[in-house]
Design a protein that fits this description.
By secondary structure, the chain is of the alpha+beta class. It has helices spanning about 50-95, 110, 155-160, 170-180, 180-220, 225-235, 355-365, and strands spanning about 5, 10-15, 120-125, 130-135, 140-145, 240-245, 255-260, 270-275, 280-290, 290-295, 300-305, 310-320, 325-335, 350. The strands form four sheets. Strands 9-8-7-6-14 form a five-stranded antiparallel β-sheet.
Amino acid sequence: MALISCPQCGNQISDQAPACPHCGYQAGQTYDEQPQTEQTEPYVEPQPQGGGNRKLQWVVVAMCVVLLAIVAALLWIKVFNNAEKKVQEAAYAYVQSKDSDKAAGLTPEAIKVVEQGEDSGIYKASFPGGAVLVEKRGGEWTVYDTFGFESFPDDQLAFARKVGDVKDDMSDGKISEVLNSSSFAAKWAEEGKRIAAEELLKKKRKAYDAYAAVLLQYRNTEGYKSEQEMNSFIGADYSNYTYFLYDVTNDGIPELWVHSGSCEADYRMDAYTCNGETSYASHIYSGDAGHTGFHLGSSYVLASGGQMDYYWSNKLVYDASSGKIVETNHIERSVRETGYPEIKEPQAQDTPIKNLNTLRSTLGVTN
């Protein structure tokens, strides 16, 4: 038996086979007489569907992740640098000026991005002149100077050394403990009162100069330069040129109230104030004073009087918006049946304008 090629499909078959087992071709028939069968494609091993696409997807995802990581890193570096720069600038300004208000620039958010020091809660920021340390203590940020020493308020530290609470050999921690103690706080409060009183006295000295000039101007109004001339011309009425001091501006420096005139028909009351910053008195009130008395109330002067069975009164109060003394609570009524009301406020004690000793003693200026 020999193998031959099938005339129709070309596969090897036996020369004794009556028909091709592959395509059905029968021996002894021509190609056109053979039954036609559907040609089959050569066998190919099946491949997994979509495998190449999935690999490409993973590659794209990996590239995106890497790209996002790079962008995030660049943004973080930028934010870090900006925050650190702000801390450095604020710390540097504070150290240079010793201004505690500027320490507010060292916010907790900014501090978090600064290099943390060895001690818990202490952070370090570097800047072009050195480094600064900051520490959160009791809810507040404490700032240290370029050498690592705590920057204490100069006035408090000087006072603590003066009273002996702080010694030269004390550590920063001990100094901080002293300055934050209740005993030192009490001493510092008293020192504050002393300083305030000293500053007020300086202002009162300027007020004295300003008020003395005003009183001198009243004495020279009619051109009479001496007491003898004033007494000779005005006579007994000279006593009507008087003054008193009373504070209605509540700044610790009383106003000068000057009563002038020769009779009830032309009596006047004028008020002057001086804030102590300059030796200048401002004229802040002028009103009639005939048949009127003046009484001292709580931050006001009560002007009350009467004539021909009528009573009137006004409260003279300081108006901060205008910088003037204004009349309020005006009362006017007949007293024929009720009589004059009782006035509870004490009456102002008048001093002749020639008496500057009273002005000096009232202001507390003794030299």
